[in-house]
């Protein structure tokens, strides 16, 4: 890390923003555990839900907790970006992470209140563009990540990015335990994304059947395909089969749609996970490296394996 991170964090971990999965309870639990808690703004379907949910949420957090993080879709198909930016300006999340588009549309708003901008990037071209835009950090989405995924090795990715970027680096891609965290930090990252680790937790908004599938599956039960959303994403094969799709004959990519409209149904009925899925077990004790995470004590499928 180029300088001391200005936010309070007990571990260098961000609970990654997951569409239709990350909500206020998961974000708050993450922050209370001393890590970053991120949510995609489309999970709050309207500005009114923003107001109701995050007014209460901010009241439950203290300066000693980890940072809460807003994740904005900046792709041209997102018609609510202006409304989301208005909410960001109102509630002032310490960190805003952009995804599926340039970070430029959010820079003035977030920098205006003293926040930091990170950009999700999946390749070197996007990493360079985001760095040139003046972001404070990059979230390097690598091979093994759940949902919209990358193809580069996390170790090769962070090493290459460090050649031209000295800001904060977060790496995501199959990291599900303390060994993965340690490896990422040793490779030159400052923090890691963990998404699949928290899919089956008590605070997750995922359906119970989704949580159980995460517990039951391993990395061989995944397939990367653009055929669901138009962008390569890592899907659980059993959910594709349940939706009447053949994982071995997915066909070509559909038209991209990040508006939260038709894609909502896709993500609701077809479920994503990363390559760390095999590390998620049922009713295990909290891992030694993660004492204090409240979801580990839930008497239901939890993301608590060591």
UniProtKB/TrEMBL annotation:
It holds the Pfam family NMO. CDD domains: NPD_like (cd04730). GO terms for molecular function: dioxygenase activity; nitronate monooxygenase activity. Coiled coil: none annotated. Keywords: Dioxygenase, Flavoprotein, FMN, Monooxygenase, Oxidoreductase. Belongs to the nitronate monooxygenase family. NMO class I subfamily. This is 2-nitropropane dioxygenase, NPD.
